Amino acid sequence: MKFRSALTALALVVAPGVAVIGTSTDAFAATKISHATATSMFRQVGITWSSSGGCSDRNNSTCTSFDQLNLTSAQGAQTLKGASGCALNITGGTETGHASGTYSHWNGYKLDYGKSTCVTNYIKNNFTYIGLRGDGAPQYQSGSGNIYADEGNHWDVLYYNCGGC
Predict the structure, then answer these.
(1) What does the buried/exposed string (b/e) look like for 97-120 if buried means 16 or more CB atoms within 10 Å of the residue's CB?
(2) Smallest Cα–Cα separation from 32: which of 86, 93, 87, 90?
(3) What secondary structure does DSSP assign to 121-146, as a single string?
(4) Rounded to whole angstroms, how far apart are CA atoms 67 and 95?
(5) Distance separating alpha carbons of residues 96 and 94, to the nearest angstrom
(6) What Å distances lie between residue 94 and 48, 64, 83, 127, CA to CA?
(7) Quick check: 136 and 81 in contact, CB under 8 A?
């Protein structure tokens, strides 16, 4: 319990403006951040984002929202940007319209990135191919355990952690 309290305090110092969701007994408790906090974190390292609807409403599937994104997912994006040196454009966040499940976009665990040669080469050259996902998407796993799925026109990334931040 003391470790969790210290970790929560550290997370609040590292990322002001975040909210901690859950209790010490929740298996999937995560530090959630607002859209504004996420966009500030992304701007700091040069990550861009876009939406087909030009909006950020979490309840509109044509928007790209970061409301209720896990702090570790935002940090994972920062880690990928720094490690790869590639331009990153996020095309999907926590908005409705993605597949459901515990480790889902809606629950703050996933981000989608637009495809580029730089990002694709970085993932394929640095992560381990682990086979096809149930829907046929090829998957690669980073050393930290995060999973990158090639969905054809974008990368669907599942962040279990910040990727070594």
Answers:
(1) ebeeeeeebbbbbbbbbbbeeebb
(2) 93
(3) HHHHHHSEEEEE-TTS-EEEE-TTS-
(4) 8
(5) 7
(6) 16, 7, 24, 25
(7) no
pTM, rounded to two decimals: 0.82
Report the distance separating Cα 102 and Cα 100, nearest Å: 7
Three-state secondary structure readout of 53-83: CCCCCCCCCCCCCCCCEEHHHHHHHHHHHHH
Helix 117-126, helix 71-84: angle, nearest 10:
100
Residue reference for tokens 């682990």? 130
Instruction: Please identify which residue in the block is written with the tokens 């880690």.
Output: 79
Q: What is the pLDDT of residues 88-131, one digit of tens each?
A: 999 999 999 999 999 999 999 999 999 999 999 999 999 999 99
| Phi, psi (rounded to 5 degrees) for 88 | -120, 130
